[in-house]
Amino acid sequence: MKLLNTTYFSDSKLFKKIGKVIKSAGIIVIYPALILYYLFKDSKVPKASKTLIAAALAYFIFPADSIPDLTPVIGYSDDLAILYATISNLMKYITPEILTQVKDKIMEWFGEVQIIDAEEQKLLNKMAQSPKKDNIR
């Protein structure tokens, strides 16, 4: 897909960033980034929504944040806000298959999914409560 061929967002740049921050950022930051990544790869997600995803992931990758990523948790708060705001706008596209892909990758990288189970449950609860509308056209 052409959207991946941008200056700031690509598969390799995303996974390189994740590799650099995986220990300091932890599962809680990587989880929403992976959800967006797998949404981006999903053929059912409209191109306009993928543009939003690419922008959010580019912000996550881009080294010049509004809050530097030097301090664990606090340094990633701006990244988390952008990632979760984007997820909130695209909830209708999140499927059990996408969540399974995310959990499989988390398991591969971290060897555990207990924290993700709790995050996933929060997300599923939010999805159940939110109307199924597309905020991005």
Instruction: Write down the overall geometry.
Output: globular
Helices and strands, in order, run as: HHHHHH
Structural class: mainly alpha
Report strand %. under 5%
Low confidence ranges: 1-5
Profile the largest sheet.
Answer: none
Distance between the termini: 18 Å
Query: What is the β-strand count?
Result: 0
**Radius of gyration over all CA atoms, rounded:** 14 Å
- Number of DSSP helical runs: 6
Mean pLDDT: 77
Question: How much helicity do the residues have?
Answer: 55-70%
Total domain modules: 1
List the helices and strands and how they pair.
Elements: H1 11-25, H2 27-41, H3 47-61, H4 77-89, H5 96-110, H6 114-129
Helix pairs in contact: 1-2, 1-3, 2-3, 2-4, 2-5, 3-4
Structural notes for this entry:
By secondary structure, the protein is mostly helical. The chain contains six helices and no strands. The longest helix has 16 residues, at 114-129. The radius of gyration is 14 Å and the shape is globular. Residues 1-5 have low confidence and may be disordered.
Briefly, what is this?
The chain has six helices and no strands. The chain is mainly α and 137 residues long.
List descriptors.
about 140 residues; mainly alpha; globular; disordered N terminus
